[in-house]
């Protein structure tokens, strides 16, 4: 296979939403830059396990692999999928969490459709028919009653936006606003206990509405059209088709201590991304958590068979597996499993410090890990 043509984002000047941008504006690729420079423009999300800081290293490794099509099977914050798109691949993303799906649909699969002044006015307009579900459920737990009403109102007005990519942009902006506004960016403690993390930083001074408007402006410069049919899915990775030159996998490893539960940390934004449709809220929980989704990668008894099944499924593709030294199974086990299906296995290593999803009691040596890329070709 030939090395893919490197498609990159043009140097778009940031244009404020209030300067009359039409709602059907499409951002297109019309000039060329280094793909890594494009990828580093991607906004950072307060998301456990995000690889944003590792993008230069990932770019270096990906550049040695010829590919035209790529899958990010556990897309999370979407930054790696965005890098693959910038490198010229036709990209498919997948994540079983709704908010991660909407991030990827809004910023990776989106062919450059953004919201303009009219759209924003519609979203912010007071809607007398808005439900009070979020306010009634989370008052006294997260944010202020006024901020919770704001989220109810935006969701009520979201029906006025027909385009699926624009809807995902709005949902992504709401989720980003909630993550920025919430102390530490995780939803494990309620307002009372979270107050000790109020250190005066700007993110905690801004309201959810202000964060939402800022996010809408920031995100409008991210999606672009490169003429390729990118896709985003929200499903079990084992149900995906197998039609990709390169498959990048970063599943939720069983950690050596604590846990890897994204639902526990991000249940509020996961519910917000779908207005809690299809989720059971655990009323006995102090923070109104939702019932945890099952994944075999989160349990020691099922993780190794799950990896074997995963490697077998994508045996016809080049597999790039991301792995951290604080995870389970051991590196040697994963290499052995991958060698069942691949004649050549290479391992690349880098040092990395995770910042999101940790807290002040986490020892520095636990946050600092060795990050590995295991490539089977």
Nutshell version of this structure?
This protein is an alpha/beta fold.
Principal-axis shape equals: globular
Q: Biggest sheet, open or closed, and with what strands and sense?
A: 7 strands, mixed
Q: What is the rounded distance between the termini?
A: 13 Å
How many beta-strand segments?
A: 9
What is the element string, with H for helices and E for strands?
HHEHEHHHHHHHHEEEHHEEHEHE
Instruction: Return residue spans where pLDDT drops below 50 for at least 5 consecutive residues.
Output: 1-23, 355-364
Alpha-beta classification: alpha/beta
What is Rg? Answer: 21 Å
CATH level 1 name? Alpha Beta
Overall tally of domains? 1
Number of helices: 15
Give the strand line-up of the largest sheet.
Answer: 3-2-1-4-6-9-8
Helix content: 25-40%
Average pLDDT figure: 87
CATH-defined topology: Rossmann fold
Our estimate of the beta-strand percent is 5-15%
What is the architecture at the second tier of CATH? 3-Layer(aba) Sandwich
CATH superfamily: Vaccinia Virus protein VP39
């Amino acid at each position: 296979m030939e090395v893919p043509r490197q498609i990159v984002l043009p140097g778009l000047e940031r244009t404020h939403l209030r300067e009359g941008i039409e709602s059907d504006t499409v951002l297109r690729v019309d000039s060329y830059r280094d793909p890594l420079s494009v990828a580093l423009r991607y906004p950072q999300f307060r998301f456990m396990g995000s690889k944003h800081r590792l993008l230069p290293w990932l770019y270096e490794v990906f550049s040695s692999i010829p590919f035209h099509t790529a899958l990010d099977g556990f897309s999370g914050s979407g930054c790696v999928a965005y890098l693959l798109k910038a490198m010229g691949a036709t990209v498919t993303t997948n994540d079983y969490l709704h908010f991660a799906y909407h991030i990827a649909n809004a910023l990776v699969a989106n062919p450059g459709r953004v919201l303009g002044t009219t759209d924003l006015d519609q979203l912010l307009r007071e809607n007398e028919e808005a439900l009070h579900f979020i306010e009634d459920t989370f008052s006294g737990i997260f944010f202020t009653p006024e901020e919770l009403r704001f989220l109810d109102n935006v969701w009520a007005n979201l029906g006025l936006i027909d385009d699926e990519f624009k809807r995902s942009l709005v949902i992504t902006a709401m989720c980003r606003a909630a993550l920025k506004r919430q102390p530490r960016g995780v939803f494990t403690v309620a307002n009372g206990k979270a107050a000790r993390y109020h250190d005066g930083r700007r993110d905690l001074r801004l309201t959810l509405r202000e964060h939402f408007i800022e996010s809408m402006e920031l995100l409008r410069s991210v999606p672009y059209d490169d003429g390729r049919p990118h896709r985003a899915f929200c499903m079990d990775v084992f149900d995906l088709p197998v039609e990709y030159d390169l498959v990048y996998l970063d599943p939720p490893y069983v950690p050596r201590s604590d846990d890897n539960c994204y639902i526990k940390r991000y249940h509020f934004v996961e519910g917000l991304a779908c207005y809690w449709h299809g989720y059971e809220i655990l009323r006995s929980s102090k923070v109104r958590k939702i019932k945890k989704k099952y994944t075999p990668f989160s349990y020691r008894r099922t993780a190794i068979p799950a990896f074997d099944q995963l490697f077998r499924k994508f045996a016809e593709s080049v597999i790039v597996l991301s792995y951290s030294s604080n995870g389970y199974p051991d590196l040697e086990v994963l290499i052995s499993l991958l060698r069942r299906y691949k004649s050549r296995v290479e391992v690349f290593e880098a040092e990395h410090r995770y910042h999101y999803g940790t807290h002040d009691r986490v020892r520095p040596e636990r946050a600092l890990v060795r990050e590995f890329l295991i490539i089977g070709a």
